[in-house]
Amino acid sequence: MSPYILAILLFSLGLGTTITFSSTHWLLAWVGLEINTLAMLPLMAQNHHPRAVEAATKYFLIQASGAAVLLFAGVINAWLTGQWDIHQAAHPLPIAIITLALSLKLGLAPLHSWLPEVFQGLNLTTNLILATWQKLAPLALMLQIQPPHSSLLIFLGLMSTLGGGWGGLNQTQLRKILAYSSTAQLGWMILVVQFSPSLTTLAILVYVVTTSATFLTLKLNKATNINMLAISWAKAPALMALTPLVLLSLAGLPPMTGFMPKWLILQELSKQGLPATATITALTALLSLYYYLRLTYAMTLTMFPNNITSTPPWRLPSAQLTLPLAILALAAISLLPLTPAAMALVAL
Amino acid sequence: MTPILFAFSSAFTLGLTGLVFHRVHLLSALLCLEGMMLSLYIALSTWSLGMGSASSSALPLFLLAISACEAGAGLAILVATARTHGTDRLQSLNLLQW
C-alpha cells in the first residue's frame, strides 16, 4: 500500500475516534464511528486474499448495522424527547437499544460471534489496531450514556466474561484466543461502567497495554497458532521468559498490572451490594486463565520432543521495532504498585 | 405514536430484519442496509421539518453523504468478495472457521 494512502487511512482512524470522543450530538457520534469503520476496511483488505476480504466483509456488515441501529435509537430519542444530546437523560427504550448496538460494535457476548472470525482473517498488526484503538470510540459512548437499568449491563458483562472464557477453551488459534480474551476483558469493563466509569477507563487502559504487548510478541515470532509458539523460545529466549508474565497479567494474576482493574472492579461490585455478581465474575475469570496458562505452557514451561536440528527456525533479522514491545511488556508486568497514581489519573 | 414515527420505525425494523434473517446474497444485505439508512433519512428530515429549526435542516444531507460513502465501501467489498470467492453468496464466506 502506498504510504500516502496508508497515512490518510491512519489519520482517518484517529479522526473518527476523536470525533466520537468530542461529540455531544448523536449524529456526530455516529459520523465518527462510520469514519472509523470506513478507514479500517482498506487496512483489513489490503492483502487481497480470500480470508482478509472475508474478514473485511464480516466487519463491514456488523459495524454498519451496529452504527445504523445506534443512529436509529438516537433518532427515536429525538422524536420522543426532542433533543439529541448524549449526556442528557434520555428515554429508556432508545438507551437500551443504544447499549445493545454498542455491545454489537464492541463484540460483547451474546453479540460477539463475529469477533473471532474477523480476527482470524487479519494480520497481527491490523488485529492490534482492531483490538485496541477500535474499541475506544464505542466504549467512550458507553461511558457517557445514562444506563437504562442495571440488569441489562450486568447481563452483558456476565455473558461476556463467561462467553469469552468458554469460547477460548478448545482453541488452538492464537488470534481467536485473543479475540475471546478481548470479549472477556470488555465484559469486566461493562460490568462496572454504571457504578464507576473511571474504573472502566482504567480497565481499558490496562487492557490496551497488555494486549498490545501480547500482539507485538506474537508479531515478533510470526506466530498464529500454538504449535508455532512451541518453537519460539529458540528465536528470542529472553522475550519468551517475559511473555508468560504478560499473559498472566492479561489473565489478571496478582503481582502483575492486569490484577489492578480486576481487583478494583471486584471491590466496587462488592461495595455496590452485588456479591453474587462479583463471585460469578471472579469464577469465570478462571476459564480465561485456563487458556492463558495453556499458551504459557506451550511456550515456555515445556519443551516439545523435536529433534534438535529441526527445532531452531532460521534466525532472520526482524524488521520490527522492539522498543515499543519492551516498554509495553514492562508496563504490562510491573505497574501494579502504581495503582493509586492510576486511580488518580482516571478519576472523573 | 405518530404515523410518521410508526412508518420510519417499521421501515427500519423491516430492513434490519431482512439483514438479519435473509442471508443469501451479499447484495441483498447491502440493499437492506441502504433501506435502513433511507428510513433514517426520512426520520431526520421529518424531525427537522417538525421542529422547524434551521440549524438541524442540514443534518439529513450529512446523513445521506456518509451513508453514500458507506454504500460505496459496501459495493467495493462486494466486488472484492466476488473476485476472491467467485460468488456473492453469503454461504460461501466460511473460510474463517479454522
TrEMBL record, chain A:
GO terms, biological process: mitochondrial electron transport, NADH to ubiquinone
NADH dehydrogenase subunit 2 C-terminal domain location: 289-341
Pfam family, one: NADH_dehy_S2_C
Membrane topology: Multi-pass membrane protein
NADH:quinone oxidoreductase/Mrp antiporter transmembrane domain span: 23-287
Reaction catalyzed: a ubiquinone + NADH + 5 H(+)(in) = a ubiquinol + NAD(+) + 4 H(+)(out)
GO MF, one annotated term: NADH dehydrogenase (ubiquinone) activity
Stated name of the protein: NADH-ubiquinone oxidoreductase chain 2
Gene name of the record: ND2
Automatic annotation (TrEMBL), chain B:
Catalytic activity, reaction form: a ubiquinone + NADH + 5 H(+)(in) = a ubiquinol + NAD(+) + 4 H(+)(out)
Source organism, top-level taxon: Eukaryota
InterPro entries in the record: NADH_UbQ_OxRdtase_chain4L/K, NUOK/Mnh_C1-like
Protein's cellular compartments: Mitochondrion inner membrane; Mitochondrion membrane
Molecular function GO labels: NADH dehydrogenase (ubiquinone) activity; oxidoreductase activity, acting on NAD(P)H
Top-level enzyme category: translocase
Pfam families: Oxidored_q2 (PF00420)
Entry's transmembrane regions: 28-49, 61-82
EC numbers, comma separated: 7.1.1.2
GO cellular component, one term: respiratory chain complex
Annotated Gene3D superfamilies: 1.10.287.3510
Topology in membrane: Multi-pass membrane protein
GO BP terms in the entry: ATP synthesis coupled electron transport
Keywords: Electron transport, Membrane, Mitochondrion, Mitochondrion inner membrane, NAD, Respiratory chain, Translocase, Transmembrane, Transmembrane helix, Transport, Ubiquinone
Main location: mitochondrion
Assigned protein family: Belongs to the complex I subunit 4L family.
Function as written in the Swiss-Prot or TrEMBL entry: Core subunit of the mitochondrial membrane respiratory chain NADH dehydrogenase (Complex I) which catalyzes electron transfer from NADH through the respiratory chain, using ubiquinone as an electron acceptor. Part of the enzyme membrane arm which is embedded in the lipid bilayer and involved in proton translocation.
Name assigned to this protein: NADH-ubiquinone oxidoreductase chain 4L
Protein species of origin: Eleginops maclovinus
